[in-house]
Amino acid sequence: MAVDKACPVVLRQRDRLEVLAFLHPLAGRQLVKGSVEPGEGSAAAAVRELAEEAGIQGEAILDLGTWQATPTGHTWAFHLCRAAADLADAWSHHTADDGGHVFRFFWHPLDVEPTEEWHPIFRDALAVIRQRLAETAANRPLSLPGL
C-alpha cells in the first residue's frame, strides 16, 4: 500500500526520552502528521509538515518504517527528524490547517502511556514509534546530539 501520511518524530533526552507532541484545540493530543503530496517523498513530507504544523525547520535523519493505520486505512511513514535549533519546553504555533488553529506543543515522555486526552490513532502511533525505536536501538545506537 502506498504511503499517504508522513509523521516526523522529534526526540529529546532529559530525565527520560521524550517525543514532540501537541494539543489540537478540537481533536486532542497528537503527533505532527500530514499528507504526502503527489510527487513528494515521505521524508520530504515529514520535514514539510514539521515546518507547517510546528514552525520547526529540520531534517529527516532516519527512516523508522511504515505502519498501516487500520482504523483509517492510511499508511504512515515515520521519520526521525532533527530540529535545526534547540526547542523550548513548550510553545504555541498558529497553523493554516483546517482554516487556522493554534497548536500547543509539549514533550511527551515515551515511557508514559498516553491518556484518553490523546486521539486514539495517535495512541496507536506512539506504540509503533516506541517499538521502532527499540528495534533501531537494538540494531544500532541512536547517534543524536543529547541522546
TrEMBL record:
Its cofactor is Mg(2+). Residues 1-130 form the Nudix hydrolase domain. Keywords: Hydrolase. InterPro entries: NUDIX_hydrolase-like_dom_sf (IPR015797), NUDIX_hydrolase_CS (IPR020084), NUDIX_hydrolase_dom (IPR000086). One of its GO terms (molecular function) is hydrolase activity. This is NUDIX domain-containing protein. It comes from Pseudomonas solani.
